[in-house]
Amino acid sequence: MAKIKKKGQSGQAKNYITRTQAVKKLQISLPDFRKLCIWKGIYPREPRSRKKVSKSATASTTFYYTKDIQYLQHEPLLQKFREQKVLEKKISRALGRGDVSDAARLERNAGRPDQTGKPRYTLHHVIRERYPTFIDAIRDLDDCLSMLFLFANLPSTTSVPAKMIARCERLCHEFQHYLITSHSLRKSFLSIKGIYYQANIQGEDVLWLVPYKFNQRVVGDIDFRIMGTFVEFYMTLLGFVNYRLYSSIGLKYPPKFDQTKDDKGAELAALTLEGVNLATNDETTKAIASGEGHGPDPKVQAGVDKLVKKLRTESDGDKADEEMAEGEDEEEKATDAIDKFEPAAPGGDVLPQPTYTGNDPSKLFANCTFFLSRETPRQSLEFILRAFGCKRIGWDPILGEGSFTTDESDPSITHQIVDRPIIQAATTEQGDGEDNQTAQKLGPNQRYPGRIYVQPQWVWDCVNDEELKGPELYAPGAALPPHLSPFVKPTQGQYDPTVPLEEQETEGEALDAEIEDAKDEAESEEEDSEVDNDMDVADDNDDDEEDSDAEEDEEEEDDEEEDEDEEEVLLRQRELEAEISGKTVKSKQVDPKLKAKLDKKKALERKKKEEAEDLERAKGMLSKKKRKLFEQMQYTNKKKSTEDMKLRSKRRKLEKEKAAGKA
Amino acid sequence: MPVLKAPAGNTDAPSQYKQPSRKGKKAWRKNVDVTDVTKGLDELNTQIIQGGVIADKDSADLFVLDVEGDASITKKFPKIKKGLKSDEILAARSAVPAVSMRKRPAHDKTTDGVLPVKRQRKEYVSGKELSRLKKVADGQHNSMIDIVDAAFDPWAEEPQPEPEKAVELAFLPQKGKPKKPKTLEQLSISLSANGKPIPAIYVPKGGASYNPDFTEYRERLIEESEKAVEAEKKRLAELEAERIKLEAAARSAAEAEAAEARADLSEWEDDSAWEGFESAGEELSIKAKRPRRKTQAERNRIKRRKEEERRLKHEAAMKAKNAQAERIKQITLEVAEKERQLALEKAEFSDADEVGDDEKLRRKQFGRYRLPEKDLELVLPDELQDSLRLLKPEGNLLKDRYRSMLVRGKMEARRKIPFKRLAKTKITEKWTYKDFQLPA
């Protein structure tokens, strides 16, 4: 007989521990326990059966793994928590006795461990423990960055001290500087919540959200103690990540921080990057400042130069964007050396393509000089423009220190970003009348010649499409094109408004459209040849065909023979109608091109049917459960694809109308 | 006015009744009888007051050797006339000079011209600081850990330091590092309904753009508005249910009241019955059944009836059983169908997204409090602007981050408790009046 097991000595009862038990075991207070758990990455767990773990547990009892808590007992930070507890006791005893000065002294001494010989406590060891490799740390950077950028933008209160905010801000700026020098920012998106950024750091995509400035309402139902604990941990983490990133590109960490500049609102410019070697210090800083340290690809540079030149000439307003497109095409031809991975089978997955297009993203704005008007969001614009190669950014002095120029009339400015409406009333009168008073300033609607005026969205759209977009769509006062999310991956066969129709329609759809076109043409010819022919015949044909098309769409099980039968029926009907109306039968009105297309379509359908049959056979091999699953999947896919097809056909119609309008 | 008396009883220090010996265990330390010591001290005090300790004095000061008589002595010391005790007490003068009541001694009025250095109050603690200290004592400290600039790379390959150990201590077992449990590496439990891990930041959909594409925006708007309509419907249904419940309660209360009133009205009738007045027509005719033996025929009839009953019962049971057996088949079919449906739904969910949904949460959550609802993040159509300057940001990022932490299962939900629960105080009268006695 097996040994009788005692209850509560093994299994779930041993593996889990309640929160209260854990707190008692570690001999710390509950808030301290919470802190420790957050730092060490110990999360609440869910036992399979609460009853087996503990009989007295209620629904709200939280459980932890016993092993985790056991491991916590080796934590050096625990000592600090206990010391703190002792200190608290000492202080409260002194206060109880009325020895206020004693209490103050105790507290003061605890605050300077270096002088009292007590050890300092940091979270350094925790970082290494939780993220064994650097890549692990980068994978968790999403949360870290979102949190720190958020706290950098909070107003300071008693629960969020100003010191913490300043530190968050500095760490964020350091990180931004790394992104700027390494050109690893990839995408950005203006959402209603804030601005999303995506960077690629050592092959990992990092996505984070930055709030808009001056917009944080601090609501009451948030536990700032817990948030503060997270922020403390993340500050340490980002510090190390920054250190590693800076040293990977040969920079000294921490970069030099200028307090006076920061007080004047310089933000990014308050930090100066330095090379690691003191001897080569000046060179590297210069190199970073001028951006030549990374050795630009001459070919790419030439391409970008050409493009920018074109853009400049375009600003005069006489060039259309066709030419630019041509230029791009040429460029692509010239540099199109990268392989394209295409799916082997038509239904296969879309493979991730190498993202090397004609323009290097790091040189996107390299030859531009920007000026930001005072109503634009300077912080985000500055960061994005710098990250995409812009070196000279000026802004209104009201937006803070650190600009390339504060003079709006600087002749070197090529682009100006404005976001104010065009004032309609009485602009010309005023502009003339007050000339002597405001000789320096421009009138409300006046522009400096020779520079491009765009709205802020232009920058984001350029960055996301990795090309300089035509500025005329983004002119001040113009109705902007929609700002699409760059993160939404188009699935195969999905309707994508940004891609031309030819690239995304399926073969069958294209054929259908062509047949339609050919028929239309034939009809028009017919009409030309026989003006007095009554239209009923053609209309009837059309209707019938549409019907049959629709049927084909709905049920793909129509047989080929049936199709042919149908056609014969149609033919016969036509003959009958012709007899009635007293005309000769035009059996040869289907021209060979149309016929070839029809044949092609038939072949396609046959192929489709064969595939479907194959699929049906394969489905027979599956288990019942899996088959049902598969059917469901097919159903949803079909629903989606029909929706997409509708959208595409709508667009086709619109395009056709447009073409007709032009012709 | 009542005359106050000194508190009754002994004013001495509490003591054991008798301590003939201090050797016993009972007499250790506690309530040692010190009366003889205090008595001695009192005596010493009186001696000092009267002009010095007698034991210390020279015998010449105390005694005079009178060798010849003095005739005038009787005049010098008149016959002692006993006066009043109070006069005697008042007349008594202490040999010890009184303590000066002056703040500054009289001789301090002249100075040497050097002003004393004003002592700085180093130990002064301001009120603000004091309140902070109180908070610290209460466990509310800001930060215990130092956050310093990173000065090394924690992920760099560090050289393993060779454990140096004296040869003579080699037999001691090496103290190894505590091993990290495997459970520590498990992901936190996602609170989404489909159980998939929830990302820290959701990849934004096109509808969240400040200047969205129309179709995407419409989709989102419809989705959100449907949700809002659902919520409102639910709320209204709850209100209605509440109302109906209240109405029913009111109705039943009214009925009960009415019944009571009726009972009150008809009270005298019942009373009359109670008291024994009854009208003549109400005389009951009771037919008493006479006890007698059952005949055989009766017995047989009863037996037959019982048999019949048993048979019918059995038949009914069999019928029910058969019906249930039939039903089982049906139920199994139904269950299979339902399971299939569920599996399909699940499959559809799992197919649609690899990430968890943070709006549809699972029923079981951590902690006592429910998770906060997600804010509605939608710019209404009339507020939709295509200019970045005019954008009114939606949602609260702070709340969003906090909720994200909770939803990802990093910690249990907490609620702010604005006021700490204070200890209940009970006011009572002090019984000090028992310390006095009123004279009879």
Overall strand count of chain A: 11
What do the pLDDT scores of chain A average to? Answer: 78
Assembly type: heterodimer
Shape of chain B: extended
What class would the helix/strand composition of chain A place it in? alpha/beta
The averaged pLDDT of chain B comes out at 82
Largest interface by residue count? A-B, 117 and 91 residues
Evaluate the radius of gyration of chain B: 51 Å
Tally of contiguous helical segments of chain B: 9
Name the structural class of chain B: mainly alpha
Q: How many strands, which pairing sense, and closed or not: the largest β-sheet of chain A?
A: 4 strands, parallel
- The helix-strand sequence of chain B is HHHHHHHHH
How much of the polypeptide of chain A forms β-strand, as a percent range? 5-15%
Give unreliable regions of chain A as ranges: 278-296, 315-337, 353-357, 426-440, 530-560
Span between N and C termini of chain A?
95 Å
- The portion of residues forming beta strands of chain B comes to under 5%
Radius of gyration of chain A: 35 Å
Helix content of chain A: 40-55%
Commentary on this structure:
The complex is a heterodimer of chains A (663) and B (440). Chain A is built from 26 helices and 11 strands. With 663 residues, chain A is an alpha/beta fold. Chain A has 5 domains: 12-74, no CATH class; 78-116, no CATH class; 124-290, no CATH class; 298-334 and 357-422 and 447-486, BRCT domain (Rossmann fold), CATH 3.40.50; 489-524 and 592-663, no CATH class. In chain A, strand 4 and strand 5 (204-211) form a beta hairpin. The relative contact order of chain A is 0.05. The mean pLDDT of chain B is 82. Chain B is mainly alpha-helical and 440 residues long. The longest helix of chain B is centred in the C-terminal third of the chain and has 57 residues, at 296-352. In chain B, 39% of the residues lie in helices and 0% in strands. The relative contact order of chain B is 0.08. Chain B has 9 helices and no strands. The chains are: A alpha/beta (663), B mainly alpha (440). Chains A and B meet through helix 3, helix 5, helix 6, helix 7 and helix 9 of A and helix 5, helix 6, helix 8 and helix 9 of B. Chain A: This is Pescadillo homolog. Chain A: Residues 588-597, 607-619, 654-663 have a biased composition (Basic and acidic residues). Chain A: GO terms for molecular function: ribonucleoprotein complex binding; RNA binding. Chain A: Residues 313-334, 428-448, 484-663 are annotated as: Disordered.
